[in-house]
Description:
Elements: E1 2-3, E2 13-14, H1 16-34, H2 38-56, E3 64-69, E4 73-75, E5 79-87, E6 95-100, E7 106-109, E8 114-118, E9 124-132, E10 136-140, E11 143-148, E12 154-157, E13 165-170, E14 192-208, H3 220-226, E15 230-238, E16 241-248, H4 264-281, E17 285-292, E18 295-302, H5 305-316, E19 339-344, H6 350-360, E20 364-369, H7 383-405, E21 409-412, H8 420-429
Parallel strand pairs: 4-13, 16-17, 16-19, 19-20, 20-21
Antiparallel strand pairs: 1-3, 2-12, 3-5, 5-9, 6-8, 6-11, 7-9, 10-13, 11-12, 14-15, 17-18
Helix pairs in contact: 1-2, 4-5
Amino acid sequence: MNRAKATGLSAWGPTAAHARSVWCGLTLATVAVLGHRPDLLILATPFLATAIWSTLARPTSPLTVRQTLGHATLREGDATTWRFNIDDPSGRAEDIGVRLRAADWTDMHPNDRAAASVHDDGGERLGIEVRAVRWGRHRVGPARVVVSSAFASFQWVSDSGSNERSLLTLPRTAHFESTASSVHRPGLIGVNRSPHQSPGTEFAGIRPFQPGDRLRRIHWARSLRTGTLHVTSTWADHDRYVVLLVEGFDDVGTSGGIDGNASSLDLTLRAAGSVAEHFLEAGDRVGLITLDNRGIRRLPPASGSGHLQRILETLSATDTTGRFTDTGRVPRGLTPGSLVIVFTPLASPTSLERAVAMAAQGRSVVVIDCLPAGITQQFSDNPLGNIAWRLRILERTREIRRATESGVAVVQWRGPGSLDRVLRDVQHNAPNRAGRPK
C-alpha cells in the first residue's frame, strides 16, 4: 500500500460567507439603531445569530488526514483507489470535500475527480477510483481536502504539497498458448523435450548397444530375444534460453491507451510482455535487453513469476526522449544457440541489419514487426507524411525479403498465436549440435 503523509493543521480560518454574514448583520444593526428602524433590526437578526452561533461552534481541534493509494503498481486497464481517512476529534466539522489532481494516462471516477460527504461523528472515509490506461510511471495527485464547519463559516484546508504519489503501470499482456515445439539448446535441464537424444527421463526408443552406453540402460527383453545387446534411448530434458530484444527508439503512430489505438511502442511492449509470460510459464529462462534513447538495459536470464514482474517493470521504463544513438551493433552477452526474439517497428533498416548479424553468429533470430496496421491512414491529412510512409513500407518489404533469405524469420504481431508458425519453422531449420545420440 502506498501511503501519503498524514497532514494536521491547527488553524481554522473564517470563510468569505462568514465575513459577509458578520458585515451584513453589523451594518443593518447600526443603521437600525441610528435611524430608529426596527424593521432593519429584524432583518439583521438572522445574520448576527448565524455569525454568533457559528463562532461559538467553531472547531478547536486540528484535523488529521491520511491519504493512501491502494496499489502502487497496476496493469494497463486496472484500477485502484485513492482513499482519504479524516479524523475530527472535536466532532464539529460538517462538510468534507476532496479533489484529486488529474494525472497523465489515467481515468478517474467520479469523472470530475472530486468527492464530498456530510460528516458524522467519528472518522470519515472517502475514495476516488484511479484507472491506469497506458504503461509507464505516472504521478497521481496531489489531493486537496477542504473541511467546513456549521453554516460554512470556518474552513480547514489540507497542505497537499507532499501528497503526490507514483503509480507504476505495467504493459497489458495477452495470454496465448503456443503449440510450437521446443527450440533446442543442449546442456540445460528443464521441462521441454529436446530435439536430440541424450541422457534424460523420457523414453525415445531401443537401439543396439554402443561403446560408452551405461549398463543400466540395457533392455534385457530385446537383448535376450535377438541375441544382441540393446539399450533404451531417451530424449534429453532441457529448457530454452530466450532473449527478448526490445527496440524503443521510436514511437510510431498515435496512442489512445488501452481503450484506443495502439502506437508502435504500445504494441512492442505488450507483445514483449506476452511472449515473456508465455515462456516463463513453460519453465524456460528468459533474458531481456532493451534499447531506447536512454541507452541499453539488461536483465540476466531467469525464470519464475518474480522475473516476469522485473521484466514488465523494465519494459515500463522505456523512454524515447533521450539522446542515445542506435549504432546497429549486436548487444554483448548473447550466447550462441540462444533464441533471440526482436521486437521492433522496423522504422529504420538498422533493426534488420542487427538481426541478420545475430543470425550469422549462430543464433536463432525471430523479428516481431510491431508497426501498427494502417499507419498511412494516420497521415491522411498530411500528404508528405503519407507519401514518406508509403515509400518506407516499400523499402521495408524489400529489407524483410532479404532478411528472410538470410535465415531471419520475420512475423507481424497480431496478438496471441503470432509465434506458433514461425517457432515451428525455427525448430525445423535449427542445426543439430548434439553430436551422436545417447
